[in-house]
Write a structure and sequence with these properties.
globular, five-stranded antiparallel sheet, five-stranded parallel sheet, 12 strands, alpha/beta, 239 residues, activator, Sig_transdc_resp-reg_receiver, phosphorelay response regulator activity, 8 helices, Arc Repressor Mutant, subunit A, CheY-like_superfamily, Rossmann fold, 39% helix
Length: 239
């Protein structure tokens, strides 16, 4: 029997935390609410979670700092909660490794959809979802293992990737030598959405270049096509 999804919610507003918790419970998702970073750390030390929902406006250690710290310590997917006026915080959150964001006030059905989308993107793919078991991509000595969701550098070292970074690299590997617009990349990695996610693709591209390019300022693989988007300019083979 598949264990239920378990989500840790870091939210200092008790009403919002309870609302999210009750709504997700109605959809067979277990939750625990932590009001601050200290309570979150205690929750992590006593249990395992499939996803973290993180409010940015928290007392004590703020959400951006928590996001940076959690991403450096764990591979757990992160969805940040942010106010409508905090566009810069959305971008910063994505730069620090968050996989998605949702704006307050939010629709509960949208939150559930975002959770499911992030979990789908970060779970281990298998034959059931249409991808071949063991599928991998090879380019210039790099190996992108779709089954294990691992990226291995030419030197043999595994390169840590967030779920969003891996999905973007996967999309590029599936479409080498093809100019992809930001909108196309959004649809391939996040699904249709609105807001500053077009800018988030630029953030993800920058993060990915830092990890796979010898000189991120003069990229050999992920090249910008002015006024159009990006192109993955390297030969890609399937293994």
């Amino acid at each position: 029997m598949t264990p239920p999804i378990s989500i840790l919610i870091v939210e200092d507003d008790a009403e919002i935390g309870e609302f999210i918790s009750l709504y997700l419970a109605a959809h067979d998702i277990e939750t625990k609410v932590a009001a601050n970073a200290q309570a979150m750390d205690a929750a992590f030390s006593s249990g395992a979670y499939d996803l973290l929902i993180l409010d940015l406006n928290l007392p004590g250690e703020d959400g951006l700092s928590i996001c940076r710290r959690v991403r450096s310590e764990r591979r757990i997917p992160i969805i940040i909660l942010t106010a409508q006026s905090e566009d810069i915080d959305k971008i910063l959150g994505l730069e620090l490794g968050a996989d998605d964001y949702i704006v307050k006030p939010f629709n509960s059905r949208e939150l559930l959809a975002r959770i499911r989308a992030v979990l789908r993107r970060t779970e281990t793919p298998n034959a059931v979802d249409g991808r071949a078991v063991g599928q991998a991509y090879l380019f210039s000595g790099w190996r992108v293992d779709v089954l294990a969701r691992e990226v291995v550098a030419p030197c043999g070292i595994k390169v840590a990737m967030t779920g969003a970074e891996f999905d973007l690299l996967h999309a590029l590997c599936e479409n080498p030598h093809r100019v992809l617009t930001r909108e196309q990349l959004i649809n391939m990695t996040h699904g249709p959405t609105t807001g500053p996610f077009e800018r988030s693709i630029d953030v993800l591209i920058s993060r990915l270049r830092q990890k796979i390019e010898t000189d991120p300022k003069k990229p050999a693989f992920i090249q910008t096509v002015r006024s159009e988007g990006y192109i993955f300019s390297t030969h890609v083979a399937r293994a």
